[in-house]
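=== RUN LOG ===
request id: a7f3
mode: sequence -> structure
chains: 1
length: 116
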Amino acid sequence: MITAELTTTFGYIEQRQYVVDLSAPYSVKCDQKALITAKVTKVKNGAPVANQAVGWSFVAKQSSRDRLSRDMSVTNRQGIASVKVSFGPKAGKRIVKATVPGVKMPITVRCKGGLG
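=== RESULT ===
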């Protein structure tokens, strides 16, 4: 069973206030990849922010083989950017940080069971 985690933070980008919502599965098997998405919207009217760079990095990982599919992505017209997490052989939590100018938001994703 996969459950989702959603985290919200506020920050300022170019003097305008935005909201960044992160979502990811709470837990997956270690031989699967986890998709993390960031949705960037304007606080004032909830409109999505397109073409916004989102940086991705690990805050904590369990294995030297833990990987992110990219270190930066750009939001689409719906204000959504994403990254995939590949897990090394050790079960446990990983914390991935999404960085938008003025906002650094962490989210946790776990794998269970290790690799065969």
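=== NOTES ===
Strands lie at 4-13, 16-25, 27-29, 33-42, 53-60, 67-68, 72-74, 80-86, 92-100, 103-112.
The mean pLDDT is 84.
=== END ===
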